[in-house]
Design brief:
Blueprint lengths: L12 H12 L6 H6 L4 H13 L10 H8 L15 E3 L47 E3 L5 E13 L10 E6 L9 E4 L5 E7 H8 L5 E8 L2 E2 L7 E3 L8 E7 L15 E9 L3 E2 L4 E7 L4 E9 L5 E6 L14 E6 L5 E4 L9 E3 L1 E4 L9 H13 L9 H11 L3 H17 L3 H11 L4 H5 L3 H13 L11 H17 L10 H6 L5 H13 L4 H9 L2 H6 L2 H13 L4 H13 L13 H9 L1 E2 L2 E2 L11 H19 L1 H10 L6 H10 L10 H7 L12 H14 L6 H9 L5 H7 L1 H12 L1 H25 L9 E2 L3 H6 L1 H7 L11 E2 H5 L3
Parallel strand pairs: 3-10, 11-18, 11-19
Antiparallel strand pairs: 1-19, 2-3, 3-6, 4-5, 4-7, 7-8, 7-9, 11-12, 11-15, 13-14, 13-16, 16-17, 20-21, 22-23
Helix pairs in contact: 8-9, 9-11, 11-12, 12-14, 17-18, 19-20, 20-21, 21-22, 22-24, 26-28, 27-28
Length: about 800
């Protein structure tokens, strides 16, 4: 498997294989990164250590040398150093060259001043040109056609009329719109020179117009030719180039005292493809020759934006017979370790722009968040601190050309970031991925979901890649904010906070925060969650796990009514109940008594959410809701308790069966299957009562599909309405009319509607699958008349493969619809 090029932010099987190979050598990434097959900070550190051990330049990404060593056996010795080339960001005219061998890392030098004029275009030399017939175009090595402007000239001495050798010829923009040196060359022994300017290079310097250029001639540092004495109008250049003569005298012109030869310059930016600018790194320029490298100019240190500019003179090139450098750049980190090297730009122009990109193919454009900030912040600054109306949001979208959804996401994330103290970029990524703008919903997400949202946003350039190193810190802050929000009450005037509930069991707020943290990270069943919690020393040492589980369950069942939670805790401490299952034995009157009781002088009462005209009505509704909730949660316990107090035939025996068979649960296993699997289940029931118990419990099992309240089920048992089918046959209107007084109108209508749904579904299944309506397809043999007419043919028709094919009749064909 080829690991070359893996770096920060990558996912997949290649990263998983990288983790395995590093682990074999004792260099482990975090468990989380291994599980997600993610190249994160710990993987990067493991790669760096591996490269240090084997003497490889520490790029913190998998270079060719690193990949080769990882593919070998762990005991293999590291081979010679091989430095990976970095990617060079250039325009279509840039020359990809051969990467030279790595020289010794240069120590960082004080940065030279970067010129005030920032050259933003990227330029380079034309690739290995082939001159066409007319000489005006060149075909590059990749087949692209580039227009070339030529100037062929000769510098002649005014007095001797002979060519002057060794002179420096510079070309400049006559209008001075471009302050950069356009080109530079030297005259040969005959005083001749040649200048070739590619169209992409000129476009980079001058845009969409052809300039008029002038020449400056130097002998050493002495200026010989007046700057405006002769010009080169590119717009009027003949197809075969401009032929010109430039005359120079022995004495310099009178206004030449301030003119000196201008050095060539290469400028650009050093950046990580994901993380952005690399400030404080050292850039060194070199001229590449066949078996040697020559340093050009002085190494410089990148500024805060990662920008650099290196000026160099052509004198080091002359011994190799060239006036243009075959240029490449080397980037070293603040420790002096080489981390990137550009490809060679052959015949580099006098003014070059080269971006050094580490960890990718190209520099990223500004992230989505940065573009939104640039467009929106100046406009919303006047309204800061207030929420914008729908009309104002629409105006912002219209004014900036952005979609309203992006504007709303940006504004909502700004509000949430302001309240939480987390960087706006990270909150924007989470809100954008979630598609919601509510603070509680955003922070209620699973931590793994939040991590995936941030990692994806960094990788997709939704937020700036330079924030990659801050990812773990941001996730920690998001986690703490999520815990804070979970412990808060969504409505303090109506609902107590989770922290108040947990304080009834846990001795410290730190334990409450740990509980919420484990709950947020949990994925799986509730049983597995409590098992995980038991493994944590905080809860194991306190011995409060059972109490904690009880409190969490009754908090939800009591509609988050803290006084009722405390009352039920007191019942548990006194031994009246052991678990939340025992609450299913409480009747409405039992719940009403609890509501009327007091805890430490404070009435239990009802939650504010319970609506009623009087306190008595509210208490009655709350008691009924609590009884119904517990009967629905634990139907078997509830049925056992209710039937043990009932006088209906078979009720006491049925309750006895349920109490002696705790493994049986309504809704989890059918009674018939349970009895088949447990032949001794009816041992505790008297023999003459067993049939009645089975019929009674079977009826209860069917009626549980219609209602979980035994008090509503009892009248149906008395009237022998033992199934949904029986109620459905009775008819909805008749059923409601008869039982509205006993059950209540709403309950009667609900039971009739459910019975109709269950009965209709059962009938549909019966018709679809029962043998009474789906008889087995059979073939009918020919009648005896066939035997009389043709005995042998009749016998042949009975052979395998013949029945139904000739003399027989396929009854299935008769059932096919017309």
């Amino acid at each position: 498997m080829n690991l070359t090029g893996l770096g920060a932010g990558d996912f997949g099987d290649e990263v998983a294989w990288l983790h395995e190979e590093l682990a074999k050598r004792g260099l482990d990434a975090s468990v989380d990164e291994q599980k997600r097959k993610f190249f994160g900070p710990t993987t990067r550190e493991a790669v760096r250590k591996f490269q240090t051990i084997h003497g490889i330049s520490q790029s913190c990404e998998v270079c060719e040398k690193t990949a080769a060593l990882l593919a070998s056996q762990p005991a293999a010795s590291p081979s010679a150093e091989l430095t990976p080339p970095a990617k060079t960001l250039a325009n279509e005219s840039r020359q990809p060259g051969v990467v030279g061998s790595a020289g010794p890392a240069q120590p960082p030098q004080p940065s030279i001043p970067i010129p005030v004029f920032e050259f933003e275009h990227q330029v380079s030399a034309v690739r290995s040109p082939v001159v066409n017939g007319d000489g005006s175009e060149r075909q590059t090595a990749d087949g692209a056609i580039t227009k070339i402007f030529y100037a062929f000239g000769r510098v002649i001495h005014c007095q001797t009329r002979t060519g002057v050798s060794g002179l420096r010829v510079e070309t400049w923009d006559k209008a001075a719109l471009c302050p950069e040196l356009v080109d530079c060359t030297f005259t040969d022994d005959e005083g001749q020179f040649e200048i070739a300017l590619s169209e992409p290079y000129l476009v980079a310097l001058f845009g969409d117009h052809y300039p008029e250029l002038v020449f400056r001639i130097f002998r050493g540092d002495q200026f010989l030719q007046h700057r405006d004495s002769i010009s080169w109008n590119l717009h009027a250049t003949p197809s075969r180039g401009l032929l010109l003569r430039i005359y120079v005298g022995s004495d310099p012109p009178s206004d030449a005292s301030s003119l000196r030869p201008t050095p060539a310059v290469v400028r650009g930016r050093a950046a990580h493809a994901i993380k952005g600018p690399l400030p404080g790194h050292t850039v060194t320029a070199f001229d590449q020759n066949l078996r040697a490298q020559t340093q050009l100019g002085t190494p410089v240190i990148t500024n805060e934006q990662g920008r650099f500019a290196i000026s160099y003179t052509p004198e080091p090139l002359l011994p190799f017979g060239k006036d243009k450098a075959d240029l490449f750049l080397r980037l070293t980190d603040p420790r002096g370790v080489e981390i990137a090297r550009t490809k060679v730009i052959c015949h580099a122009p006098s003014t070059s722009s080269v971006d050094i990109v580490v960890g990718g193919d190209a520099l990223r454009r500004p992230s989505e968040f940065e573009r939104l900030s640039l467009a929106l912040l100046p406009r919303i600054r006047v309204a800061r601190g207030t929420d914008l109306s729908e009309e104002e949001v629409h105006l912002l979208a219209c004014s900036t050309g952005l979609t309203e959804s992006l504007v709303k996401t940006f504004l909502a994330s700004a509000r949430i970031a302001g309240k939480s103290g987390i960087r706006h970029e990270f909150i924007y990524a989470i809100v954008r991925a979630a598609g919601v703008t509510d603070r509680r919903t955003v922070f209620s997400q699973n931590p793994a979901t939040q991590r995936r949202a941030l990692e994806a946003a960094l990788k997709a350039n939704v937020i700036p890649g330079r924030l990659f190193d801050l990812l773990e810190d941001a996730l920690h802050k998001v986690e703490q904010a999520s815990i804070d929000l979970a412990l808060e009450s969504p409505n303090p005037s109506a609902v107590p906070s989770l922290l108040e509930v947990l304080r009834t069991v846990l001795p410290t707020d730190a334990a409450a925060r740990e509980f919420v943290s484990v709950q947020r990270q949990h994925q799986g069943s509730s049983k597995y969650f409590w098992a995980r919690l038991a493994e944590r020393s905080t809860f194991a040492s306190l011995g409060v796990l059972e109490s904690l589980q009880f409190v969490i369950q009754i908090d939800a069942a009591t509609r988050h009514h803290l006084p009722m939670v405390r009352a039920l805790q007191r019942m548990r401490v006194s031994g009246r109940i052991r678990t939340s299952r025992d609450l299913a034995r409480l009747t409405e009157s039992d719940w009403a008594s609890l509501i009327d009781s007091s805890i430490d002088g404070t009435p239990v009462g009802t939650p504010n959410a319970i609506v009623g005209a009087t306190p008595t009505e509210k208490a009655s509704k709350y008691a009924s809701a609590l009884a119904e909730t517990m009967e629905h949660a634990f139907p078997t316990v509830a049925m056992s308790s209710r039937m043990s107090r009932d006088t209906l035939p078979g009720s006491m025996a049925s309750a006895n069966f349920l109490d002696t068979n705790p493994s049986f649960e309504f809704g989890k296993i059918r009674l018939s299957r349970y009895l088949a699997d447990n032949p001794r289940a009816l041992t505790a029931v008297q023999a003459d009562q067993r049939k009645g118990v089975i019929e009674h419990l079977s009826a209860v099992e069917r009626l549980l599909n219609l209602t979980h309240r035994y008090q509503y089920m009892r009248p149906l048992l008395i009237d022998r309405l033992l199934s949904a089918q029986a109620i459905h046959r009775m008819g909805k209107n008749r059923f409601v009319e008869k039982y509205a007084g006993l059950l209540g109108s709403d309950v009667a209508v609900s039971i009739a509607a459910k019975a109709e749904k269950v009965g209709t579904a059962a009938l549909a299944l019966f018709v679809r699958y029962h043998s009474a309506t789906n008889s087995t397809a059979a073939y009918v043999l020919p009648g005896i008349e066939g035997f009389k007419k043709d005995p042998q043919g009749y016998l042949d028709s009975l052979k395998p493969g013949k029945i139904g094919a000739e003399g027989g009749v396929d009854r299935r064909a008769e059932k096919e619809p017309s």
